[in-house]
Design goal:
mainly beta, single chain
Length: 117
C-alpha cells in the first residue's frame, strides 16, 4: 500500500487549504485514516482521524477549523483547513490502519504547509 499526499502550499494566516491523500495497492474502505503533522524542531503530533463509520476525532488545537473526510470510491482522505494560523505551519502526513486502534501501518510522504503571519 502506498499513500500519496498532496495539496500543501504557502497561505496567509486566515486562509484555507485542502489536503488530499490517495491510496494505491489496496482498497482502504474499511480502514481508519488520520492526519499528523510535524513542525520544525517538534515531534510529530496527531491532527485528526476518521474511522470506517466516518466518526471523527480532532486535536484540540484544530477543532472548529479543520475537517477530515473520506471518499471510499476514490480511496482517499481529505483535510480541509480553514482559518489557518502561523502555528499550523508543518509537514502534514496522512496515515492508515486496518483497525480502529493500534499502530498506523501506512504513511504518506508528507506535504508542506506554510502559513505566513
Amino acid at each position: 500500500v502506498q499513500l500519496q499526499a498532496s495539496g500543501g502550499g504557502l497561505v496567509q494566516a486566515g486562509g484555507s487549504l485542502r489536503l488530499s491523500c490517495t491510496a494505491s495497492g489496496r482498497t482502504l474502505s474499511t480502514y481508519s485514516w488520520a492526519w499528523f503533522r510535524q513542525a520544525p524542531g517538534k515531534e510529530r503530533e496527531f491532527v485528526a482521524r476518521i474511522n470506517r463509520y466516518r466518526a471523527t476525532t480532532y486535536a484540540d488545537s484544530v477543532k472548529g477549523r479543520f475537517a477530515i473526510s473520506r471518499d471510499n470510491a476514490a480511496n482517499s482522505v481529505y483535510l480541509q483547513m480553514n482559518n489557518l494560523e502561523f502555528e499550523d505551519t508543518a509537514v502534514y502526513y496522512c496515515a492508515a490502519r486496518p483497525l480502529a486502534a493500534g499502530n498506523w501501518d501506512y504513511w504518506g510522504q508528507g506535504t508542506q504547509v506554510t502559513v505566513s503571519s
